[in-house]
Amino acid sequence: MTVLEIVEKIIALMGGGLQAEIRNETTNEILHQYLNAEKARKVLNWKPLFTLDESLIRTIAWYKDFFGVH
């Protein structure tokens, strides 16, 4: 999943109405970076408590509460 896909998912979960703006103004960025929890799953028998959607919904709710947005 790309960063843009995550941003679009957050926008959708917040009710839409926004569009991501890609400026391509950064310098010295890592071109390709991949995150993988497979080693934690195997070595530590780790598994996430929530799905990505559940995590984003909970995070959005926390920020709304923190900033007093209802």
Account of the protein in words:
The protein is an all-alpha fold and 70 residues long. The protein has one domain (1-18, 36-70). The two termini are 29 Å apart. The mean pLDDT is 93. The protein contains three helices and no strands. The radius of gyration is 16 Å and the shape is flat.
The mean pLDDT is 93
Helix content, binned percent: 40-55%
Gyration radius (Cα, Å) is 16 Å
Sum up the overall morphology in one term: flat
Which regions contain 5 or more consecutive residues with pLDDT less than 50? none
Number of strands: 0
Q: Sheet bearing the most strands, described?
A: none
Note the total helix count: 3
- Report the β-strand fraction as a percent range: under 5%
Oligomeric organization of the protein chains: single chain
Q: What is the helix/strand order?
A: HHH
Termini gap:
29 Å
The structure class reads: mainly alpha
Give the count of structural domains.
Answer: 1
